[in-house]
Amino acid sequence: MLFSSLTFIYIFMPILCILYFIIKNQIWRRAILTVFSLLFYSWGEPIFVLLMIGSVAVNYISGRFIGKTDDPIKKKAYMIVSVALNLVILGIFKYIPMIVETLDLLPFFSLEVPNIPLPLGISFYTFQAMSYMIDVYRGDTPCQKSFLSLLLYVSFFPQLIAGPIVRYKDIAEQIPNRNADIESIFDGIYRFSVGLAKKVILANPCGEAAETLLGMTVSESVLGKWTGILFFALQIYFDFSGYSDMAIGLGQIFGFKFKENFDYPYMSKSATEFWRRWHISLGTFFRDYIYIPLGGNRKRWLFNVFAVWFLTGLWHGASWNFVLWGLFYACLLVLEKKFLFKLWDKIPTVPRTVFQYVYTVFITLIGWTVFYFTDFGTLISTLSTMFGLSGASFNDIFIDSVIKDNAVLLIVSLVFAFPLSRFICKKIGDAIKNENIFSVLKTVFTIAAIFVSTALLAGNSYNPFLYFRF
């Protein structure tokens, strides 16, 4: 099991910060961050930390070989071997049970599904390791000569198990030498507190409401299922963007600058725009390392789109519902580019905008329904209820009471899922026109967010980790 949240906040981080900031030597600082990152991971995965170190070692050696040769054939061979080994490791631990389970459905197979534990965050750190190898092969960045530095890049604890996927070339220059002044450290703590509040104050209660509404079998209704999926949509957004905020903030404390991973995706007006705003680091990874090398928009466009979205779905989990979810978005992106965008251009601005928002909310909730249910029987049953095909009533007293009990949570979550909160903060800053007062307000918010989150963590056992499957 991972560090508990309270252990991490009040023991792990204070000890790390004290050791890190009293030492000025950059090499020792790198060593401290690496040791604590490995400790963080090994606390929950004591065996699998060796797997991660082994993966880094393979990529380090391959990168050094690429750096020592000018032969393009040898460079390509080293890169292919390294990437293939990364994918084999990922496939064994993440996808072998899924493959065996699928084969077992065939009449001429009788196989026992192996019980292979899934290392936490294996998809994240495997993709980061591959991005290093591909960037070095392409000449986008020189090979890393320090094994310690490459190990720090892959194992750095803020983004190790929940992202974002940090590209090596984006932080290669930050690894050996970086500095964090008081202002950036404070901004990092503030950003961490925002992410923590998203996770604990908003995502967790939304998750509980979603489980209640989507898990009901005795009392079902059309409104209950749609509202349940809406709560799940809010849960996964605040959970994932909250972890990304915490990772960006923690990185900033130690002088790292990670790119943004979310940009208010629920204000999108199409599936295409949604995926420019949702999990940006994953989208750009598949674009740069899969889609463009396959030919991008230039050749075999349709095949490239479906290949990328098949892999996107598969990356999210070793279950066929995730593949279906990815292909669902592939179909939407093709439909939008070939037909819908052209059709929308013929509609006046106001009705077009309204229709685009309604359409995007609708297809997003359908997508999250496919994502949520790993069992196809339950998925079909839920979709039937949502579209009024199961004979369930539109609403009932019990469902109505659950929705009313969570009405304030729903309203607050919707407000913070859109840029309205950012707009309000900007207006407050403009109205105050005094940096000192604004800094005091940020400090008060930071303390309050950590305090309230701590109280909720201490008093509530519901604190799910959604990324175990990644």
Derived from helix and strand composition plus strand pairing, the structural class reads mainly alpha
Outline: globular
Largest sheet: none
Taking all Cα atoms into account, the compactness measure Rg is 23 Å
Element pattern in H and E: HHHHHHHHHHHHHHHHHHH
Q: Compute the number of structural domains.
A: 2
Mean pLDDT across the residues is 89
Overview of this protein structure:
With 470 residues, this protein is mostly helical. The protein has two domains: 5-178, no CATH class; 184-469, no CATH class. It has helices spanning 5-22, 26-44, 48-68, 72-103, 122-138, 147-155, 168-171, 182-215, 222-253, 271-277, 280-294, 301-316, 320-344, 349-372, 376-386, 397-405, 407-416, 420-432, 435-459. The longest helix has 34 residues, at 182-215. The radius of gyration is 23 Å and the shape is globular. The model has no long low-confidence stretch (mean pLDDT 89).
List the helices and strands and how they pair.
Elements: H1 5-22, H2 26-44, H3 48-68, H4 72-103, H5 122-138, H6 147-155, H7 168-171, H8 182-215, H9 222-253, H10 271-277, H11 280-294, H12 301-316, H13 320-344, H14 349-372, H15 376-386, H16 397-405, H17 407-416, H18 420-432, H19 435-459
Helix pairs in contact: 1-2, 2-6, 3-4, 3-5, 3-6, 4-5, 8-9, 8-19, 9-14, 11-12, 12-13, 13-14
